[in-house]
Design brief:
This protein is α+β, with helices and mostly antiparallel strands. The chain has three domains: 112 residues, no CATH class; 127 residues; 84 residues, no CATH class. The chain is built from 14 helices and 15 strands. Strands 1, 8, 9, 10, 11, 12 and 13 form a seven-stranded antiparallel β-sheet that branches. The protein has a three-stranded antiparallel β-sheet with strand order 2-6-7. Strands 3-4-5 form a three-stranded antiparallel β-sheet. The longest helix has 15 residues. The two termini are 37 Å apart.
Length: 380
Amino acid sequence: MSEAKVYADGYSKSFAEEGDFLSFLKSRRANSTWVKEASKNLRFEALVKDTAKTDAIVNDYRDMGKEDVIVDTLEGTQLVLKNGKESIPVRNCAIKTILERAKISGNALSKVERSVFARILNHCLRVADGQALLKVSDEKVSAVHGGDKSDYSVLEMDELFSITSDYLFANFVDVTYEGGFFEHSAVTAIWKLNGNSELVKSYRELLDMHGVSFKNLTASVRLTSSDVGISGANLYPSLIADGKNIPLGSPLKLEHKNGATMRDFEDKLSLLYSQYDLALGKLSSLVSVIIRNPVNTMIGVMSKIGIPKKYGVPALEKFNAVHGKGICRAHDIYYAIAEVIFLMQCAGESGVKVTQMEETVSRALNVKWHEFDIPGEIKW
């Protein structure tokens, strides 16, 4: 999809070059505004096809040369924010924060007609307290945060990623940018710390003691953040083992609230080096966990942490083909579960969805593995 269609709810883009990535984030900032408004003054209107109101809005956007924007909204949220005589399309990633402002939730909301949904929102917002902070980006409302002092703190994406890059290149050896990904809901990038073998020295020595070896074992770091209420500014230590991405969990997190600033984020960055000891601790502990029923254990753990069968089954089949049903270590199974990340990449899943899967996989570091080590035949 070309950058010309960046207004689209489903827009996503990956970046092989860091300069292109950072430049793109700067352009997104230039095409965004933050607006404060009393929550009780917010009003939404449903877009209903073949009605006079909707036809008038479509005609207005056509006159502005932006018909594609409103058509995309008709195919998506079917919702606009009324601001005086102006109608601003609502992006799908804004729904979460809009519901939070209206203080409503429930599965039934997704099933009612859009005109009913808009009326429910408006009734609830009329009695809402406090300020709302709206992010309007690339022609649409992308978020409606709390606008009071203790609520949402804006941490601009381009600054977060530029500061991270500058810090890594200044404080680590032989750093390479591995890739960046943009969606309206979240942004992520990965850097490889090639020349910092001391970060994984103890872990490599432990693996050598147990006869486990990798040709290439390198520390890496991922930054994921969002300005639409999906994620804070989160730094994830990770590994790249013979080309395979191994999530470690234990992120350094800065929430977008309580007056958080870029200085607070820089403080988090300063803890990154020491965070590797903590992050590798749980992974290292899996080396000593002996599993007697590996297939059943892998099925149980993947089901527990929420790995979809679409990717879990082929990962299980590959593990079974290599290890069979013999005794192994929980460490082996964890690496096998991490295969789902590679499978998602091969399937063309978006970068943000892949990073969400990394977080899902890392939950396995905290499960009680022996609870899933049971004999017999288990079907997933």
